Amino acid sequence: MKNIHKTLIFAALLSLAAACSDNEDVERPVITAEGIAASPVNCDSYVLGDTIRLCYRFTDNEELGNFNIEVHTNHDHHTHSGEAEDCPREAEEGHEHEHEAVNPWVLNKDYTIPAGTRDYTARVEIPIPEDVSEGEYHFMIRVTDRAGWMEMKSLSIMLVD
């Protein structure tokens, strides 16, 4: 009876290993500015009510999945791994830099990439609300491939009135 259990366990492990080896895509997708005029870039400034014109290229060795854009306040000056360097902060006359955003802009939106695509240039117009707090924000781009691997690019942007 013990041999039957050992054989069943071995067969199950062998099946699992075979199933895992079918998916050989272990490479993360890439977010690049190669061949395009990327936008936004780190430390860009935008006026409330304007539009951010996203333009980035995504590539993958097998197949891309989708991408996500997230915007959130950076009034507390936190960081994300893989982020570009901090932007220089100019002194605002009569204002402290570290203040709580009264009406922070929060955006988190997913976008699809056509099936079978390995190279895709994302172009999206993102309207900036007029009634959000000005200040520092993080603009995050995430791309995922069909195998589930993800790459992220985090940029610092400034919103001004």
Topology:
Elements: H1 2-22, E1 30-32, E2 45-47, E3 51-59, E4 64-73, E5 107-112, E6 119-127, E7 135-145, E8 150-160
Task: Characterise the protein shown here.
There is one protein chain. With 161 residues, the protein is mainly beta. The chain has one domain: Immunoglobulin-like, CATH 2.60.40. It is 13% helix and 39% strand. The chain is built from one helix and eight strands, in the order αββββββββ. The chain has one helix spanning 2-22, and strands at residues 30-32, 45-47, 51-59, 64-73, 107-112, 119-127, 135-145, 150-160. The strands form two sheets. It has a five-stranded mixed sheet with strand order 2-8-7-4-5, with no helix packed on it. Strands 1-3-6 form a three-stranded antiparallel sheet, with no helix packed on it. Residues 10-19 and 91-97 have low confidence and may be disordered.
In short:
This protein has 161 residues and is mainly beta. The protein is built from one helix and eight strands, in the order αββββββββ.
Short key terms for the protein model shown above:
161 residues, Immunoglobulin-like, 5-stranded mixed sheet, 3-stranded antiparallel sheet, elongated
Question: Uncertain runs with pLDDT below 50, 5 residues or more?
Answer: 10-19, 91-97
Cα shape: elongated
**Could you state the order of secondary-structure elements as H and E?**
HEEEEEEEE
User: Total domains, how many?
Assistant: 1
